[in-house]
Amino acid sequence: MAVCEVCGNDYDKAMEVTVAGATHTFDSFECAIHAIAPRCEHCGCAIIGHGHEAGGAMYCCAHCAHAEGHAELADRAAS
After folding, report:
1. In a structure prediction context, what are the per-residue pLDDT tens digits for the chain, which is 79 residues long?
2. Which of 7, 10, 49, 55 is deepest in the core (most CB within 10 A)?
3. How many CB atoms lie within 10 A of CB 32?
4. What does 3-27 look like in DSSP terms, one character per residue?
């Protein structure tokens, strides 16, 4: 069995996730997201989708990017 590095649960179905050459052990996707998901530079929420990148920073949505001065980003393509 393996121990989750976030919650400490000793679980027989734990998973290993490798990010940037470092391997982490988690018992759930919830713990993996908590530990390794990037955080929005504006609101701080975990970015579990593609997110938006501007000026070297990551944002969860165009609204947060706009709030930080990146008006060029959009959540939808022009129709």
Report:
1. 899 999 999 999 999 999 999 999 999 999 999 999 999 999 999 999 999 999 999 999 999 999 999 999 888 877 6
2. 7
3. 21
4. E-TTT--EETT-EEEEETTEEEEES
- For residue 11, which phi and psi values (nearest 5 degrees)? -130, 135
Task: Give which of 22, 37, 31 is closest to 3, Cα–Cα.
Answer: 31
Tokens of 79: 């129709």
Q: How far is Cα 48 from Cα 25, in angstroms, rounded to an integer? A: 18
C-beta atoms surrounding 18 within 10 Å: 8
Residue 16 tokens, joined: 């290993």
Query: How far apart (Å, rounded) are the C-alpha atoms in residues 66 and 72?
Result: 8
Determine the longest span between alpha carbons in the chain, in angstroms: 51
pTM: 0.80
